[in-house]
């Protein structure tokens, strides 16, 4: 044995991968992930450390008892421990909530949950086939047969525990859910056909996963084909700065065939490993929260909604609030079509009990009773109305803050680029790269050929990005979606006009600097008592001009006696905005102490452009 993969060693020694990484960190050994290999010498050191720890634990039996995490050997899987141990679950635990007992959680520790995986990739690269293969082989036969309906997600039982797959392939489902502010997937599988390599939608899928900060695993599919060229896929990936592990990077790449099943077990294993590293946990006893995966109307049953339980446990009879609607769970089925009464974290369940079809991506929360549900909805209606009113009041372009975040930090300009040719895309990217500076990070989330798509708009709306098009224009449909989501799409025919727009964004990013600018001077010749406005300084403008709302400084002799604002200006009886030098006027200050002989100086704050 010369080199060993970290997770293989962890498995052999009955230790969790986490623990293994901790030891490696302690030894100062660098690694990319649990699938990195380590030297034999390091393996020996690890064994010694574990032996010492075991001896120390044996010497302190009392402590060893409480520290179940260390003292209990991990189950043979050593990987994903998807759910609560029976002890913390209570007697009510049932199929959808419990799993094979996880080894580790102490009483007050939040238990692990199963990973939720989404599969994305270019059209025809085999997303559906891969999901079908997994469903066929990993969903128990009696569940998979006959009555199983498509509910938007399914649970696969693997040797490493449960894995939940969102079975609407493609990034539309992913982005629709994200566009409503929910993140349902923990891991994204990017399927790339080995005979086709990276295609536009592959890049989009990668951009979506990156924007959501969801870990990615690449499945190179169709390796059974004679013309398959997995090496080309790997090299192409490096051009997107995604470096496969075997090239020294940290991207997990698994060759598979959805047709023969080759590599699918490896893929599932990598999913479990990634999940373990992500340390996914949720409390079945916590406050319920979930997300709608999909909703539909069934001719017989009525409205059916698939909910992914994210936190807490759902029970038949619970009241649920989705958006501005609520429902009471009349019946619940798991993804295999079996009736269940409860469902814990990372469980997709189909619910009967809503009166309107909820949209995918909507967040679901529970309410104590009908009254509480109605109250939640009433508050939401109020908030929505206030927001609508506020929006109507300030229709117009979004602020730079909206696009780039708070002032004073390293700010990122998120852009989606669309152009007519690869050459234009590259030329624009080249120019943009040179615009980056210490303060500005230009993040081209997606650069594609062809008109912007609805998917781009969703990505832009969730990531706060602006869509810039060169020599392509959005279709009317896409433009409409963009408008409804408040996403700006700007189209250009000249590259430098597009770059000017980026410059504008960058310039606008610099914190504005204001300067006080002198406006004029006035001599107070008499003070007039006005029944409504108080004391008005009857003055003569000796220099410059006065404006309403200008800053005012009053000096008496050499002393500044007051600093405030010109709240009103009068010429004879009329209110005026400005008075020029050489004219008499009434100056109304937000101060009553003005006296004959005072000098009033007016100034205003103006924004000075930098650079
Ligand atoms: N030889 C071979 N063919 C495959 C494999 N996986 C998928 N296919 C074929 O590739 C075609 C497209 O597969 P799908 O699973 O429909 O691809 P998809 O990515 O879901 O496609 P869309 O749903 O249209 O986006 C089908 O004809 C499949 O039979 C594979 O591993 N090997």
Automatic annotation (TrEMBL):
Belongs to the TRAFAC class translation factor GTPase superfamily. Classic translation factor GTPase family. IF-2 subfamily. It comes from Deinococcus reticulitermitis. It is found in: Cytoplasm. GO terms for cellular component: cytosol. The keyword Nucleotide-binding applies. Residues 115-263 are annotated as: G-domain. One of the essential components for the initiation of protein synthesis. Protects formylmethionyl-tRNA from spontaneous hydrolysis and promotes its binding to the 30S ribosomal subunits. Also involved in the hydrolysis of GTP during the formation of the 70S ribosomal complex. It comes from the Bacteria. Its main location: cytoplasm. GTP binds at residues 121-128, 167-171, 221-224. Residues 57-109 are annotated as: Disordered. Keywords: Cytoplasm, GTP-binding, Initiation factor, Nucleotide-binding, Protein biosynthesis. Residues 73-107 have a biased composition (Low complexity). SUPFAM superfamilies: Initiation factor IF2/eIF5b, domain 3, P-loop containing nucleoside triphosphate hydrolases, Translation proteins. InterPro entries: EF-G-like_DII (IPR053905), IF2_II (IPR044145), IF2_N (IPR006847), P-loop_NTPase (IPR027417), Small_GTP-bd (IPR005225), T_Tr_GTP-bd_dom (IPR000795), TF_IF2_bacterial-like (IPR000178), TIF_IF2 (IPR015760). One of its GO terms (molecular function) is translation initiation factor activity. Residues 112-285 form the Tr-type G domain. This is Translation initiation factor IF-2.
